[in-house]
Amino acid sequence: MSLVSIKTAAPTGPKYWRSLDELAKTPQFREFVEQEFPAHADEMLEGNSRRTVLKLMAASFGLAGLAACRRPVEHIYPTAKGWDNYVPGEKLTYATAVSLAGQVTGLLVETHDGRPTKIEGNPDHPFSQGAATALVQASLLNLYDPDRSKSVLEAGKETSWSAFEATVKSLSLGDGSGLRFLSETVASPSLFALRADVLKKFPKAKWVEYEAFQRNAGRAGAMIAFNEAVSPQTDFSKAKVIVALDSDFLGQDWQTPLPTKQFSSRRHMDSEEDFDKINRLYSVESQFSITGANADHRLRLRGSEIKQFAADLAAALGALPGLNVLNNGTDRRSKFLAAIVKDLKAAGKDSLVITSPRQPAIVHALAFLINQSLGSTAMEFAKSGTQERVEAGVDALKALVGEMNAGQVSTLVMLGGNPVYTAPADLAFASALAKVAASLHLGPDEDETAASAKWHVPEAHYLESWGDAVTSTGVATIQQPMIDPIFGGRTAAEILALVSGSPTTKAHDIVKNYWMSTFPGSHPGETKSVASGKDAVKEITANPAEQAWRKSVHDGIVSGTKPQETAKVTADAKRIAAAWATEPKAAEGGIEVAFVPSASVFDGRFANNGWMQEAPDPINKVVWGNAALISPATAKAKNLSDGDVVTLTRGGLKMEVSVLTQPGQADNAITIALGYGRERCGRAGKDVGFNANLLRSSDAFWYAPNVEIATTGKTYTHVTTQERGLADGMNNRPLYREVDIAEYKKNPKAIEEQSEVPPLHSIYTELNYDKGYQWGMAIDLGSCTGCNACVVACVAENNTPVVGKDQVARGREMHWIRMDRYYVGSEDEPRAVEQPLPCMQCENAPCENVCPVAATTHTPEGLNDMVYNRCVGTRYCANNCPFKVRHFNFLNFHKGDSDILSMVHNPDVTVRMRGVMEKCTYCVQRIQETRIAAKADGRREIKDGEIKTACQQTCPADAIVFGNINDPQSKVSKLKKQERNYAMLAELDIRPRTTYLARLRNPNPELEA
Amino acid sequence: MSVAVPQDPQLLEVNPPLVPGHPDYHDVTEQISTIVEGDVRTTPMKYWITLACTSSIVVLLGGMLTYLALTGIGVWGNNRPVGWAWDITNFVFWIGIGHAGTLISAILFLFRQKWRTSINRSAEAMTLFAVMCAAIFPVFHTGRPWRAYWLFPVPNTDLGMWQNFRSPLIWDVFAVNTYLTVSILFWFTGLVPDLATLRDRAVGKVRQYIFAALSMGWRGSARHWRHYEAAYLILAGISTPLVLSVHSVVSFDFATSVIPGWHTTIFPPYFVAGAIFSGFACVMTLLLIARWTLNLQDLITMKHLENMNKIILATGTIVGYAYAMEFFIAWYSGNMYERFTFWNRAFGPYWWAAWSMYTCNVFIPQLYWFKKLRTNLWVMFIISITTNIGMWFERFVIIATSLTRDFLPTSWGYFHPTYVDICTFIGTVGLFLTLFLLFARFLPMIAISEVKGVVAVEKGSFPKERQEVH
User: Fold this and answer.
1) CA angle B160, B164, B165 (to 5 degrees)
2) Which residues in A563-613 belong to E strands, given as ranges?
C-alpha cells in the first residue's frame, strides 16, 4: 500500500515519470494491479469498510500518474500551454458524436481545462435535438474508468504496441481466405470506406457484425416485404395512433433520444388547440417496459405470441388477404385487437405500427404492410447500402463460429465488442476462438474476450479519439477528441489500417482524408496539420475543403450531409403471406424466457459504470443487478417468491438466476436483462447480477420457449430504491395526478379537486418573493416517459457519488432527482406512472426552520440553498422533508475516488464531505454562470430559457421547464398558469416552487369500459 | 429525651412510619456514612467485580463513539428516510429517565412529601447521570461532531452568525443545558450538610481536605441552615417547571415538524407523563437493587415503594390515554396521512414494536390497581423493567417508525440497527451504572440530614402540628 507515498515523495517532473515508470515494471506492482483487484473486487459491493475501497483505489493513483505524464501528441494541445480564447477554469464545449449499437447521437461535450466533464445532446443534430439518453451521458464515466484496459496483452501478458505492430505485419494474410473481421455495428463512414478497401485487398476475407442487441431484423423484414434493401425511417411525431408490438421505442429499442422527442411532441398540452394533437399509444408486450408504462392501453402477451397478434392485426385490417383472425372471441386480446383495428382505421395516415428489433423479420414485414395499407406517413423507407462479404446478426456469427471450428479461420480481428460474453452460449465462442491461430481483440476493457484472444489491445474511448458517425438517415458527424487517450488506446480504424498495411495509420488522418476527399476543392493526400497563427488563417481561407472540414468539426454536422431521400417501395402482401405460412408457430405452454437489453448496463458494456449500475431500472427499480422477472400469478403457481434462486434449463443450456415478481409481466413468461454476471470486468461490474447469455441460444435469440424452471433453495437479495408491496401504489394519495383528456376538457378543475387545501397561514412572517428573478420549475408528467436521462444528467452535473449496492440497500443512494414509479390498478394488469422528483424548493421550506445552524436557508430568489460548510449534519432537515429529497453523506462516499476518477467531477460544484446534507440546488452553478455572463454583457436581464438545469437540458421529452416565475411571459410561468398545474402536498403550506403538470391520458373509451 | 408518641395502630397500618426500627440520629449517620467511609479493601468483592464489568462497557462505548466519529454516521443503521433512529430514541429515553429525579427532589419537596427523603439523593444522582448519557447522543449523532459546538450560541469565527432560533434543536440545547445545570446545583446543595458530616468524621488528611473543600465551610449553624433551606427551596422552585419544560421542549423536536406521527399537539403533556413514568420505573429498579444489596429496608420502606408504584400507575394510565387519543385524533382529523401512520404503527411492519409498547406501558401497569401486587417486591421489580423497555419502545415507535413511512410511498423504508447502534446503547447503560456505582460508594446515597429530620418527627421531637406533614 505504499503507492500513495511513492507518488507524493516522488521528485518533480521527468524524474518522477521515470521512477513511476520503473515502478510499473516491478513484478510486485504488476501483481498488485493485476491480481489484487480481482481478489477484492466484490468487497466494494459488500463490505461497509470504505478503507477497502481506498486500498483498491490507491493502485489507480499510480496508473493515473502514468497516464498524466505522457507527452501530448500532435492533435491535442496540452492545457499547460493554453490556446486561443482559453480562459483557465472556464468551460469549453466541443461537438462530437457517439455511436451505440450502431445508433448515433450528436453531442456537445463540456470540458474543463482539457477534461470532458459533461455530455449533452447537440441541438443541431437531428437524432439528438439537444437531448441525450442516460447511457450516452454515462459513457463519460467510462472514459475515466480506472479499470479500463491499459496495455497491450499477448496471451494475457503485458507487451508493447511495437510488438503488436510487428506481429500484425508478420501475419501472412494472402488473399484473406483465413482472415475474418468481427465488429459491432459500424456507423462510421470513414470505417465503411476503409472496410471496403480492406475487403478489396483481401478478396476472400469476410466481415461479421454482431452484438447482443442488433437492429438487423428490420432490414430482414424489409427484404420480405419489399424484396429490396431498405430501412424504415420512423417519425413518431406524425402518428396519432401508435401500436407498439413489443417495441420499447421509448426505452432500450432506440439508443437515441429521437423517438421520445417525437412521441412527446404530441403530449405537450400547452393550450386547448394542443388537445387535438394528443396521440394514443397501444402497447403489446411481454415485459413491462417504459413504453408500456406510457401506453394508454397495454396488453400482456408472451413475446413469441406477438407475431400471431401482428398477423391477426394485419388480417383484421384486411391488409393480409386470405388470413383469418385467430381466436376472435370476447377475451381481452380480442377486444384489444378490435379496438386497435377501429382506431387505426380511423387514424389512417396518422397511424403507426411499430415493432422491436427483438421480434423476428416477419413481424417487421407485417408492420410495414399494415402501415402501408393504412397509408401511414409516420413510417417511410430509405435505400440502405449493402456491402458484399459483410454480414450482420447472430446467424452470421454462427456461420463464423462454424468456420472457426472447422479451422478455416487463421486470423480473426475483433474490432470492439465482447463476443465471448455476448455470443449465445450454444455457439461456445470462446472454444471456437481458441482454434484460431491469430486472434486480435481491440476493446476498451480487459474483458472475457480479451482474456480468450491471443492479442488484446486497448481501444480508445470516443471522447479521446478521432472518428465519425452517421445516422441511419445519413447525417454524419465528425467525432473529435477532447483529451489524449488516457490509457493509450487506439481506434478500430487505426487497427484496421494496420492490418491492411495502409500507409495512413493515424485516426485523425484516416478521418480527415476521407472527408476532405468528399469536400469540394479538396486536395487528396493532404494530411498535414495546419500551422497556427496568421499562416493558418491564410491556409484555411485558401482551401475551401479545409474550411468545410473545420466547420464540420465545429458544428457537429458534416457540412453538406443531409437526411437521405426516401424511396418509394410497396409492400408485397403475397410475399408476406407466403413468409407467414412458413413461419414456425409459437410454442404453447411451458415457460418462455425473454432477453432484453438492460436499461442500466445495456449489453454489459456499461457493467463497470457506477452511474448506470446505480441508476434504478425504470420500472422495477432494481439497482446493481438483474432478476428473472415473473408475473405475480406465475410466481404463485410455481410457488416462488422474491429472491428465490432458480435454475433455468433449456436443452444443454443452464443458468441460475434469482426471481423477482413484476406486476404486469405476461404470465408464464420470464424476462431477464442482458449485460450482468460479467466474470471479467472492473470492480463495479464483476459478478453483479446473473448472466443471461448462458441461456441464450442462436435459435432462440430473444425468446427461449419451454424453459424448465427448478428451485435451488438458495436466495439472493435484490436491492431496489423503492420499497415493494404496499409502497408500489399511491395508497389513494393525490401525489401523481392524471386525468383522461375527455374529462379534463369537460372539467378543467378535475386535477385541483383531487386534494383539499384549506386556507393556510404560517406563524412566521410571510416573505415576499415578488422582486427580481424568482426561480421555479414545472414538470410535465404528461410528456415525461421515465427514461432516467435526468437522473444521470444530475449525477454528472452535480458530482453525486456512487455509493454501491450495500449502501443503496440501506437506503443511502444520493440521487438528487429520483424517478418515482407507482403502479395503478390490479397486480396482474397494472399501469405504471413515473414522476421525476427533484427538490421542490419550497418557499415555506420545512427543512429550513428546523436546522439549528441555519445551514439551509432561502435566497431572495426563492432558492432553498444548502450551505455545506455550515452543516453539522443533524439530519433534522431530511426528517422534516415531506418528499425525502435530502440526501445525507453517511460515509465519505468520495473517499475512494482515485485521481483518474476524480477527473470526471464538475469543478463548478463542490464535492461534499461526509457528515453533510445535500440536495438538488436547481443547478445554482448554472444560474450563477448565466448571471455572470449577463452582467458581463452589459448588465442585461437574463433571458427566458437562457438557464437550463441539467435535468431540463437533457430531457428527451422536454418535460422539465425552469425559469423565472416572476416574469409572466416566461415559459415556466405560462405552464404554471395551466389548470392542470398542481403542487404536491400543497396542504402542508410548504409552497413548492417545483410544480407538476398533471398527465392527460388519452384512453380509448371502448377499452375503458 | 423525648417520649415516643403513642400512635393509633389502625393509622399505623394505613400510614406506617417512614423510618421504622426507631433509629436515633447516630444510627442514621453510622448506617449511611460507613458505606462511604469503608476501607477500599473491605468493600465487598462483588462491588468491584460489578464496577469492572460496567466500566469495561464504558470502554466499549468509547470505542464505538471513536469509530463513529472517525467513519461517519453510516456505521449506524440510520438511512433515508430514517434520519434519526436509535440515536435520538436513546437521547429521549435517557432524558426521560432523568425526570423522576427532579420530580422526586423538587416537586415532592415543595409538597412536603417527607417520604422522598430516603430516595431523593439517589434519584437526583440518577438524573445527572441520565442527562450525561443523554447528552452523548445529540453530540455524536451529528454528521460532523467536531462542529457540534456550533449549536451553542458562543462567539465563533467558523459559523460567523447566530444560530437559527426557530429550530427546536436549539431550544433543546437550552432546555437540556438548563436542566443539567440546575440539577447539578440542586444535587450539590443538598449534599453540602452531608459532606460536612463526612468531613467531620474523616480520618486522614486527604479525605479531610477533599470533604472540607466540597462542604464549603458548612458548620451547621442556624444561619447556615436558614440559608440552606432558603436556597434549597428556591432551587426546588426553579427545578419544578423544568420537569414540565424539558420534556415539553424535547417533544417539540417532533411536534413542530410536518411528519405524520410527529406533528401532534398532545406531545408535551404526553412526553412529560411518559418521562415521569419511565423515571420512576428506573428509580424503582435501582432502589430495589440497592435495598437488597445494601440492606436499606429501614430507609427504603414498602411505603416508599408503594407510593412510587401509585405514580407509575397514574402516569402509565395518562400515557395510555395519550395513545388512545392519538388514534382517535388521527381518525377524527380525516387526514389520510395521519390515519395511515397510526394504522401503520399498529399493523404495519413495526407492529411488534408498537404492541410491545402498548403492553409494557399501558396494560402491565394496570396490575398496580391491586395492593397485593403493588407491594410485592418481585412484581414491582419486573414491572419497573418492563416499563423501561416499553418506554424505550415508545420513543423508537414515535421517532423511527413515523419516519419509515411518511407522505410519499416511494421514499418509504425500514430501519435495521447495526452492532454499533446496539453497542453504543449498551455502552451508555454501562456508563450510567458505572457512575451510579461510584456515587453509591463514594458519596452518601441517602440524605443524612433529611432522614434525621423525619426521624425527629417520628420520635415526636417536633410539635404536633408539624407532624402532619408526612
Assistant:
1) 130
2) 591-596
Task: Select from A727, A870, A915 the Cβ nearest to the Cβ of B410.
Answer: A727
User: Could you read off the pLDDT of A627-636 as tens digits, one per residue?
Assistant: 999 999 999 9
What's the per-residue H, E or C state across A10-64?
CCCHHHHHHHHHHHHHCHHHHHHHHHHHHHHCCHHHHCCCHHHHHHHHHHHHHHH
CA dihedral A531, A537, A539, A540 (to 10 degrees): 110
The pLDDT-based confidence of A521 (bands split at 50, 70, 90) is confident
The single-letter code of the amino acid at A824 is: V
How far is it, in rounded angstroms, from Cα A458 to Cα A161?
Answer: 10
Nine cell digits for residue A787:
427514461
C-beta of residue A958 within 8 angstroms of C-beta of residue A268: yes
User: What's the pLDDT score for residue A63?
Assistant: 42
Cα(A799)–Cα(B286) distance, rounded to whole angstroms? Answer: 53
CB contact (8 A) between residue B258 and residue A915: no
Between A75 and B32, whose confidence is greater? B32
Contact A880 B81 (CB under 8 A): no
pLDDT for res A535: 64
- Fill in the amino acid letter for A192: F
Q: Cell 425552469, residue?
A: A962
- Distance between CA A743 and CA A750 in Å, rounded? 8
Name A694's Cβ contacts closer than 8 Å, sequence gap at least 6: A425, A653, A654, A655, A677
Tens of pLDDT, residue by residue over B159-206, are 778 889 999 999 999 999 999 999 899 999 989 999 998 898 888 888
CB atoms within 10 A of CB A948: 19
Cα(A167)–Cα(A499) distance, integer angstroms? 10
Confidence (pLDDT) at A8:
34
Tell me which amino acid residue A575 is. R
B410 vs A722, A846, A851: nearest CB? A722
- Inter-chain contact B83–A879, Cβ cutoff 8 Å? yes
Q: What is the CA radius of gyration of chain B?
A: 24
The answer to whether residue A874 neighbours chain B at the CB level (below 8 Å) is yes
Cα–Cα distance measured from residue B288 to residue B297, given in angstroms and rounded to the nearest whole number: 9
Nearest CA in chain B to A621: B410
Nearest residue of B to residue A886, measured between CA atoms: B80
pTM, two decimals, is: 0.88
Is residue A697 within 8 A of residue A655, CB to CB? The reply is: no
CA-CA distance, B453 to B239, in Å (whole number)? Answer: 22
Establish if A977 touches chain B: CB-CB under 8 angstroms.
Answer: no
How is residue A822 annotated by DSSP?
A: E
* CB-nearest partner of B164 from A852, A873, A883: A852
Residue A181 CB neighbour total at 10 angstroms: 28
Cβ contacts of A454 within 8 Å, gap of 6 or more: A154, A155, A436, A437, A438, A439, A440
What gap in Å lies between CA A400 and CA A391, rounded to an integer?
10
CA distance B122 to B107: 16
Size of interface A-B (CB pairs under 8 A): 173
CB atoms within 10 A of CB A971: 16
Is B148 in Cβ contact with A852 (below 8 Å)?
no
Of A984, A995, A1000, the closest CA to residue A294 belongs to A1000
This model of the complex carries an ipTM of: 0.90
Instruction: Please write the tens of the pLDDT for every residue from B284-343.
Output: 888 888 788 767 777 778 888 898 899 999 999 999 999 999 999 999 988 999 999 999
Answer yes or no: is pLDDT of B134 > 80: yes
> Prior bond to B16 cis, omega within 30?
no
Q: What is the mean pLDDT of chain A?
A: 87
B71, B76, B80, best to mutate vs chain A, most A CBs in 10 Å: B80
Q: Label residues A361-375 b or e (16+ Cβ within 10 Å = b).
A: bbbbbbbbbbbbbbe
